[in-house]
Design goal:
Elements lengths: L1 E14 L2 E6 L2 E7 L6 H13 L3 E2 L5 E3 L7 E6 L21 H16 L4 E3 L6 E16 L1
Parallel strand pairs: 3-6, 6-7
Antiparallel strand pairs: 1-2, 1-3, 1-8, 4-5
Helix pairs in contact: 1-2
């Protein structure tokens, strides 16, 4: 399972012009289930995301997690995180999980992260418009 965390002051996702998910200060998390990913890996990644200390403490050091700051998360499925760009000019996505597995694991990730902080989501497989204000900017790549 792969994730790209972005520290945000705000983020939102629209489908067909309507906002379907948003968060205030916290994380926007793009996630991609890979072939052969397990529920245990999903749970491990959700725990790592929840505990990742990328928010500033009182002296300006990145020492707090999203839970520590009372933040929230917007979780978006993004199969393009599976992109293989090693050859040619068109990325390959054959290592991404099949759609039915991807959706199940994405929903499990959101559920597990939601046990720690408030979570809103996008719509799996939809054409989404995502906007955010990245603070720092801080973007962290995770893979388990």
């Amino acid at each position: 399972m792969r994730a790209l965390l972005q520290r945000v002051s705000e983020a939102q996702v629209r489908v067909d012009g309507a906002v379907i998910g948003k968060c205030g200060p916290g994380l926007m998390v793009l996630v991609c289930a890979m072939q052969n990913d397990t529920e245990a890996q999903v749970e491990k990644l959700a725990a790592k995301v929840a505990k990742c200390r990328i928010f500033q403490d009182e002296i300006g050091k990145m020492n707090k997690s999203v839970a520590d700051i009372g933040g929230s998360a917007l979780v978006i499925s993004q199969f393009t995180l599976a992109a293989d760009t090693r050859s040619g000019n068109r990325p390959g996505f054959s290592t991404a999980a099949a759609p039915e597995d991807g959706k199940r694991l994405y929903e499990l990730f959101a559920q597990k992260l939601g046990e720690v902080v408030p979570v809103e989501t996008g719509e799996f497989g939809a054409d989404m418009k995502v906007s955010l204000t990245n603070v720092g900017p801080v973007s962290i790549w995770m893979e388990v």
